Amino acid sequence: MDTASHQTSLSGKRVFRLAHRLSDAVNTARLKLARRWKFEPKTIAYQGYGSTEWVRVLGRVVLASKPVPGSRAEHAAKNGNENVRGWRAFTSVPIPRSEVEIEIGGTVTKVTADRGGLIDIDVRVTLEPGWHTAVLRSVGTEPAEARIFVIGPETNFGIVSDIDDTVMVTALPRPFLALWNTFVLSERARMATPGMAVLLDRLTVEHPDAPVIYLSTGPWNAAPTLGRFLSRNMYPSGALLLTDWGLTQDRWFRSGQDHKLGNLQRLAAEFPHMRWLLVGDNGQHDEEIYSEFAREHADKVAAIAIRQLSVSESVLAGGHSEDGDHSASSVPWIYSPDGAGIARQLKELQLI
Q: Cβ(57)–Cβ(145) under 8 Å?
């Protein structure tokens, strides 16, 4: 490396470190403001998954506003009837480096959340296949319970589904509409994609031991809202694998494609005998991501199902990817504008 390039590299690193310090300073200021507004510490537990020997536990520790006692908002929260506008999901402030105790199956594990307040850890524990509960505790917060789906060693089929424009119509990635859908639109105004809930439900009926993983580039702040959307629209229960926006330890911006591909590769390593049905849409990069994964792990992919955006959805989303030529692929590819069409083709493949 010549002197000029070396100096440029050092300058870039200094700017990056400065950006991290600025980000931390902004979060510290938000924490002070949130405490002044009487926000309270809260542990949020997300649904996880695992094997009979380990489980992946996900959660977050934040400062969040609490509904006024006796208010309509408190009543709605207790009954799961919230109708929250998107921006309210981003008012909570992550508490970095929080100490969290995780208890599951008689095993207690102590972990430290990352700088974004997030917990994502594998816990070694022996459990029977099926549903279990992990309890997350952090100082000053009420315990939070996370449902954990333990996958049996004989299970050889699972489902990975995108969310945006696959199970929920969002008109992403056009920036203005993305901001509108994320921050302004009330959660009950979000529309389910036609036929997709029925499709995923049929798959879980046909394969009752199959895990369902919802893999999205959406932020963790939106997890509670997305969870309620999936439940309200009768989608099968499954783990949400989301991400955070902004700086990482080594990048200015988080890569949504890397996030998706990395989690797919992780699933392939965690469950080497599983074959996955990968469900996505042709409005973002799902085809490209799934195609790359299938090239590397063809034996771990049962089929790839792509929901085709309508003309109007394509316009709103800023276009769509072209249906590729997959004739040379050993993995079946399915294209249809709705869940019913995908179901018919999955039936031909004897997956339903």
A: no
